Amino acid sequence: xxxLLDPLPLGPAVARNxxxxxxxxxxxxxxxxxxxxxxxxxxxxxxxxxxxxxxxEAAVHPTDWPYERSPLxxxxxxxxxxxxxxxxxxxxxxxxxxxxxxxxxxxxxxQLPLWAxxxxxxxxxxxxxxxxxxxxxxxxVTGFELAARDAAAAGCDGVEVNAGQHSLVxxxxxxxxxxxxxxxxxxxxxxxRQVLEAVRRGAGKRAVVGLRLCxxxxxxxxxxxxxxxxxxxxxLAPLVDVVTVVQGSIxxxxxxxxxxxxxxxxxxALTRIVRDAVAGAAAVxxxxxxxxVAMAEAAVxxxxxxxxxxxxxxxxxxxxxxxxxxxxxxxxxILCNQTCMARDVRNPIVTCVVDPSAGHEHEDPVVGGxxxxxxxxxxxxxxxxxxxxxxxxxxxxxPLELPLATPSTxxxxxxxxxxxxxxxxxxxxxxxxxxxxxALLGHRVVLAERAGxxxxxxxxxxxxxxxxxxxxxxxxxxxxxxxxxxxxRLGEEVAADEVSAFGGRALLCTGSRPGRRTxxxxxxxxxxTAAEALDGAELPAGPLxxxxxxxxxxxxxxxxxxSAEGRDVSLVTPDLIAGNELGRSGxxxxxxxxxxxxxxxxxxxxxLRAVTPGAAHLExxxxxxxxxxxxxxxxxxxxxxxxxxxxxxxxxxxxxxxDAVAPRTIYEAILEGRRWALSLPAASRLxxxx
Amino acid sequence: xxxxxxHLFTPLRLGPVxxxxxxxxxxxxxxxxxxxxxxxxxxxxxxxxxxxxAGLIVxxEHSTHPTDWPYEKLIHxxxxxxxxxxxxxxxxxxxxxxxxxxxxxxxGGQASSMYSRLPVWAASAVADPLFREVPKEVDRRExxxxxxxxxxxxxxCRAGGFDGVELxxxxxxxxxxxxxxxxxxxxxxxxGSLENRARLLLELTAAVRxxxxxxxALGVRxxxxxxxxxxxxxxxxxxxxxxxxxQGVTDYVNTSIGVATASLFMIEASMQVPPGYALFVPSxxxxxxxxxxxxxxxxxxxxQADRALIDGHxxxxxxxxxxxxxxxxxxxxxxxxAEDVRLCLSCNxxxxxxxxxxxxxGCIENPRTGREEQPAAxxxxxxxxxxxxGGGPAGMQAAVTAARRGHRVVVxxxxxxxxxxxxxxALVPSRVExxxxxxxxxxxxHGAGVEVRTGTxxxxxxxxxxxxxxxxxxxxxxxxxxxxxxxxxxxxxxxRDVLEGRxxxxxxxVVVDEVGFHHATSVAELLADRxxxxxxxxxxxxxxxxxxxxxxxxxxxxKAATRGIEQRTDLVPLGLSAGGLHLLHHPTGTxxxxxxxxxxxxxxxxxxxxxxxxLVAHGGVEVHRAGDCVAPRRAHAAVIEGHRVGEIL
Lengths: 690, 649
Hints:
The complex is a heterodimer.
Chain A: E1 8-10, E2 13-15, E3 19-21, H1 36-47, E4 52-59, H2 73-89, E5 93-99, H3 107-110, E6 115-116, E7 130-131, H4 134-153, E8 158-163, H5 168-173, H6 183-186, H7 190-203, E9 208-216, H8 226-236, E10 242-247, H9 268-278, E11 283-286, H10 293-301, E12 307-309, H11 311-316, H12 320-326, H13 377-380, H14 394-397, H15 414-417, E13 422-425, H16 429-440, E14 445-449, H17 457-461, H18 470-483, E15 487-490, H19 496-501, E16 506-508, E17 512-513, E18 520-521, E19 527-529, H20 530-534, E20 544-547, H21 553-564, E21 569-572, H22 588-598, E22 601-603, E23 606-612, E24 615-620, E25 626-630, E26 633-636, E27 641-642, H23 645-649, H24 666-679, H25 683-689
Parallel strand pairs in A: 3-4, 3-12, 4-5, 5-8, 6-7, 8-9, 9-10, 10-11, 11-12, 13-14, 13-16, 14-15, 18-23, 19-26, 20-21, 20-26, 21-22
Antiparallel strand pairs in A: 1-2, 17-27, 23-24, 24-25
Helix pairs in contact in A: 1-2, 2-4, 4-7, 8-9, 16-18, 16-24, 21-22
Chain B: E1 12-14, E2 17-19, E3 23-25, H1 40-51, E4 56-63, H2 83-94, E5 100-105, E6 121-122, E7 136-137, H3 140-159, E8 164-168, H4 174-179, H5 194-197, H6 199-212, E9 217-223, H7 234-247, E10 252-256, H8 280-288, E11 294-295, H9 302-310, E12 316-318, H10 321-325, H11 329-334, H12 352-355, E13 385-389, H13 393-404, E14 408-412, H14 420-425, H15 436-448, E15 451-453, H16 460-464, E16 470-473, E17 477-478, E18 492-494, H17 495-499, E19 508-513, H18 518-529, E20 533-537, H19 553-563, E21 566-568, E22 571-577, E23 580-585, E24 590-595, E25 598-602, E26 606-607, H20 610-618, E27 622-625, H21 635-648
Parallel strand pairs in B: 3-4, 3-12, 4-5, 5-8, 6-7, 8-9, 9-10, 11-12, 13-14, 13-16, 14-15, 16-27, 18-25, 19-20, 19-25, 20-21
Antiparallel strand pairs in B: 1-2, 17-26, 22-23, 23-24
């Protein structure tokens, strides 16, 4: 029986282990080239032990330009070579993902018609594609061949053809999108076969050919079903070395890489069916929120799959494999999808709330890992120097050669009992990360938290429906902080003069307080903040109104939780859609489905004007019409304000991080806590001067 | 000097700078920056407007501080690396004798930290309604840093060859944030009274003047009405203008209306807002101060602009979209050829609409906008006979481009007039100006010597009878019936049937929106005005989803609310019944019956590609196709494809 960390033969090559870093949008490209930023990003994961790195998909034909920074195979050669070189140095195999988005692309950048098997509009943009003529189909097949040739010539170990989400190959395979009456329709596998044969021709015998295959479109009326998917996999497997099983299609984009509202490993049952059907003709890789080493180990051990794609898990912790090998706890992916989902018109760079340096390996200092990767020589001069991006002291930007601390090399526990040289006030994630990194750098750290537990607002947010995994971020930080010997003081306020005594070596992470109310509250009316409601504040019997001027995950999770507790809930939003800002994480449509299935009433286009005993008074944004909703209490999920009390008491000069600066998200809290720790003068000098 | 627009073409002094005419290409985003520096695309873009006769160009904003990075392609003016790019822009513009100013700005709280990875800075910790991120209230040290940043960028501008600097204090700025009682809740000397709220502005003008010296002009752009609750109104704006003038370092005042992150639909108003809607702002300021004042707000043609000057509303006129649509707007007006101006439609589809989506700026009807640095196609080596079938935007644009290159072109149109679906779209009263694209293309066809034959149906033989060297098929698309609404079903019609008067629905009408643009909403508006009881249903989460990008969504929502038009979402049509429409509410899986007398379909049409396929099958002649007969899309796709075909013939 194979184990996750055993080598895996992949056709002509052997991966050193069975952990795959799968293809995903990063926006790290420069124009449409695989860039120095990609190199740093992938090298970091290879250095952390990944067995196989699949580079962000490159479009095989100029008609495909689905997002602005989508790599184009014709422009990817030098970047592929640099990625392959860097990752080979670190011992990983490198596959180049190749694809064409077909009717799921966009004409916004190419200003060319979309190409697709049939005229099925893209679901979100409603753009109608052009049905492909024979010569156009041939052009795309040739594009696959040339791209595979170029990838192999660049030194990649192989390629992966996308027939999963956002792919022309799947669109040909499926009755949902292929309505053709010609040979491409009567045999819907014809295009896929020709593409795979072309790719094999182009890449050559010594290259790995992989296939990312949608085996369930979740659209049984016309789409690929599980049974059909397994049959397709069985027919195509002999043409490839490895098949990665995915689900989701045009109506279920979010189902391919959902957030934590869908349980991890949701795709394992399908993967097992496909692996049985493939019957050894190709290796089978499991995909789908596999974020825990134990789950991946079990799936490989019980024969569900030959390998596991752990993409988000390795965005969150690039050293996942290394740590798994040493039995160390991995920094957990919390499946929030908040910043790793890069497919957004704003072109956000892929990053991670629990590791804000993800995606920024080319510019951020490295904590507890290898030195940053060198950049591509010829592109160095073109790199934007972005003065705003890094506000660290120059010294802190130097590569930090920090060994991965193991339990045996942890800081001396004595540090906890002795006087600290730095003080962090506030044990939310900003303070925890500041304390963790400062301790890693050799400081004697004291972390003071006035509550009886560490984790701050994250613990509160984790009580929202479907958000329990947030706790893991705090759990890991807490365990690390304790492992590193940070002196933790719980349940006590720190006096201003004690803080002041630390001068610049104190950091205030004092979090937030309730925000300003933008509506009138009459005597006797009950209004609670979302935080209070999540922390279990008693809400009087009767209907509840959740006021959401933000449109993020919090109000949704409050409404869902209250509804699950049997309460009659209305969600009031000024927007046209509940959870208006959830598009990027992929939870926009799912959240609306969950709310409606739970029976939560959604009041759109409404402003909250007043709360009186028993009622919430709304006003229609466009007509001005007033409307009263019966409400025993209103839960306000609006913006909060920084808790600046200690900062003011200490002379308004001490550094702050996280919500104490401005209440935002986990990402900013961890980023700012880390930056502060990295900006501290070196520990040894402090000790010498002490 | 043209006598037609005398006021427009009278020079004017702005401090140390004399502008040759009153037409200003005011500041606007382009998303042309590359790595946050000015690009070759910028140079060619501004160069074309200078060549086209603009009296003054004001560039898009340049950021004054690393905390300010609200959108990806913002020019980082605070970096000295921008200076060579500035120099390339100013050199190009100066070659035409046109002055050019740089707009400098810090967007304050109207931003997120997504790109900067730094806290957002603002007057107070009040989250912006669009970005929804709580900013950090700036302290005294940070205010000093902001002021220093403006001075640094002003120095960069001077080094880069600009003739002046404009401070955007109007619709997306930390200065507007300080000025606005809606978002400035400070209790120190920068909050409270108007004098306090204007303190940052006056510190900035003083610092910038010191940085640029006496030889460059300095302007400030002020907001006349934020159109938000508790925000700045015209009285405040007049007072601020007085303070600015009294300080004595500023040379002119530009104006604006609205807040970019709250009431953008009134800043870059679509055709649904009457032209000149914002003139009350410069008008009020001009009465209070002696400094020259710029007026803005949907100036489409030179006459309108000239009138604003004659009537004393303003001293200069900002014409942005007018010059995006036609770079030669000013030159044509000066030459008395105003009819030749390609009128802006104020459709906002490819200019404003692309800005919000982080894409480079274009124009629905000008295929060259944003592509000025690419060489135009050379004249044809030999004149060829070209037959264009279809007189919609694709066919007419192909004809114009081909004819201008020297080809002999005939357009065959089956209807009795050209314009295709663009003409039909403009039949709705609130969309009339969309018809200007037809007017413009007809005028260009005429000028280029294109022969247009209307009422002419073409088949293969008919086309070949013209003995063409090349054929362009631009036959468009026809209304389609989805499977759930078979053609024999009565009282089910397409939007086009209603707009063209072939069907006159009455009583209860359900409009099915599967396109998400103006189709469903404009017909709903029309029918509601005729007394129908209208419901719009969509399988999507919002009716008219893309109206947000063109800034028409607020207008639609207001109309729907006041006319009692129901909007119902997440509904998939399943079939027709005697009394109405069967729908599936897909989030809950429940069936819904929507009783109605008529169903109007706004669904993707079917390409009319028969002639194209027949001609290809026939062989023996070069065949191209463009527009909806390739795939039904929007007008811009038709125009650029038509232009592309015209360029390769």
